[in-house]
Amino acid sequence: MRHFRSLLIDRANIRMSGLRILTFALHRHLAEHASIEPHRHRWSQMILYISGRGQQIFQNGAAQVEPGTLVLLPPGKLHAFQRAANRAPLCLMIDFHLKGERVHPEAVCSVNRSELSQVRQHLASLLRLQSRARGVLRWESAAAILQILITMLRAAGWLEHTPPSSGRETSLPIRRLLSNLDPTVPLLDVVKRSGYNRDHLNRLVKKETGLTLGQLRTQRRLSKAKALLSEGLQVGHVAAVIGLPDQSYFARWFRRQTGRPPSGWGRQH
What we know:
By secondary structure, the protein is of the alpha+beta class. It has 9 helices and 11 strands.
């Protein structure tokens, strides 16, 4: 993905019910700047870091950024960036408005290989289409941009995963397995109990939920951790309850998922 060239569509104006995409940009941060100063937008912004490392800084904390890091910012959220190397990071950015966007917190998460592969394919198609478009947004390009944004909104939890229709013969046992999924149980044990091999089980779970088994467990772990921290439980106790007993690892994991340390979550929520 690091070989993609720059692409800017500054007046995308892609509209559908509840969503409007304003700007699409694939480029590097300015080479002469080691940091992006604190600023706000009147719109929501999605940033996917394709290459480069640094810190995404928020009003209440900071999160480490690396290739595959996704950041979602609702309108009005103060944010900045500090790079960690000489080479400016390559970023994919989409400015947009989403119905109900102000109720969402800023989100920082890691995009999985499957989602990155989808983004890579859409970007390659976009660059090819727009190279012949003479500055006009093609409708095929609009569809690709929309699909990228929807994939990232779901990855960060801003949109629910809509499970595709699944066969009656497999949906019931998979639903039972998922309804009893304990985030503290190792995934290998879950696979063994299911009676499927791991790859096949992941395909069935993704068909049912839109997520792999590992992604689903991460989502449930995070939801449970947030709820327990909001109740005032100690960080070490919460880490043990969700199956990450190493408190330092849990703190890093929680910050990577939310952009905030667990010690401050309960006070803020």
